[in-house]
Amino acid sequence: MKTVKADKRGFSLTEVIVSIAIVSIVVLAVSSTFLTLRRIERQQVARENIISEVRNIYHIFSSDPTGFKALIKEVYDDAAYEIEEEQMVVIKFNLLFQPDHSGSFEIKCNYESVDNKYTLRIELPDSYRTLLKEAALTRVIKVS
Amino acid sequence: MMKLRSNKGITLSFTVVIMFFVSLLVAALVGYISLSYQISTRQLKQSEHKIILENKLYEYINTLYGTSFKELNNDTDFQEFAGYLFKKTKVENDIIIEIKGNGNFANIVLSCTLSEAENKIDNFEIIKWGFN
Q1: Taking CB atoms and an 8 Å limit, are B62 and A30 in contact across chains?
Q2: A23 CB within 8 Å of a chain B CB
Q3: A99 - beta bridge partners?
Q4: How far apart are CA A125 and CA A109, in angstroms?
Q5: Deepest of A39, A61, B67, B105, by most Cβ within 10 A of its Cβ?
Q6: A121 φ, ψ to 5°?
Q7: What gap in Å lies between CA B131 and CA B110, rounded to an integer?
Q8: DSSP H/E element including B64
Q9: Where along chain B do its domains lie?
Q10: Mean pLDDT across chain A, nearest whole number?
Q11: Ordered DSSP codes for A57-95
């Protein structure tokens, strides 16, 4: 009967070197993809937060167009401040677009009232200006 | 000094297995990134669309000021106004207004119910507001 001998040679040096090279290339590709993915994800989170904040601002405006400025300052606390001469309330946000008084991003709420017509025009930060269409940035409510 | 020597190159099966797993990994990663980005972008566009529908509905409601609800007729089908489709339906003393887009997201309908208060022509209130 023929006996089968175990192969004691293991991997050749070339195989080991090539595997290490391939593994390092894969690790490099995976880590760079992971970093890109994280960056994209952060951008997407910021975009989602902006849209959610815009909806929130509109919700506050729609609930009481006449008392909008007082209400928005109450909701956003120290993250919001008013520029009276420009009829504007500015809300500050951090990198992830969470309200933060020391944040570097600003959403400007231009508020105007003529007779019984109240207009709110939202200005997004420069880097996110193209995120929402023009039609999504202005709301006009008439109050009798 | 002892030298490490190898007479053997890479076997074909070894190469095939490695290449197979590497391509599988790359394909899975690319697929995951592209799919999650597409889903997220679509959700953002949908949210933007909802904001626009709300703004357009307010614009439409503003045109109703000064109109008695008795003068308004039921719309049989959606009518175009400012690039969007609107439909009014009278239910007793209330009016239900529906709005939808005529392009993407045509299945998203925003509806509101207006109630005429105390027979005053220009005084009505929104009693219901929401997406279907």
Answers
A1: no
A2: no
A3: A93
A4: 12
A5: A61
A6: -115, 125
A7: 4
A8: helix B12-64
A9: 47-131
A10: 87
A11: HHHHHHH-GGGHHHHHHHHHGGGEEEEGGGTEEEEEE-T
Q: In the prediction, which pLDDT does A4 show?
A: 55
Q: Tell me which chain A residue has its CA closest to the CA of residue B9.
A: A14
Give B61's contacts (C-beta < 8 A, 6+ positions apart). Answer: A142, B97, B112, B114, B126
A11 — pLDDT class (breaks 50, 70, 90): confident
Alpha helices of B66-118 — where are they, by DSSP H? Answer: none
For an interface test with A, the pick among B48, B57, B129 (most A C-beta atoms closer than 10 Å) comes out as B48
Nearest Cα residue to B40 out of A44, A29, A130, A63: A44
Query: What are the tokens at A134?
Result: 């023009």
User: Residue A3: is its pLDDT beyond 80?
Assistant: no
- Rounded to an integer, what distance in angstroms lies between the CA atom of residue A118 and that of residue B80? 25
| Reported ipTM | 0.76
Yes or no, beta carbons of B51 and A51 under 8 Å apart: yes
State the burial class of residue B90 (Cβ atoms within 10 Å of its Cβ: 0-12, 13-18, 19+).
middle
Average pLDDT, stretch B79-101?
88
- pTM of the predicted structure, to 2 decimals: 0.78
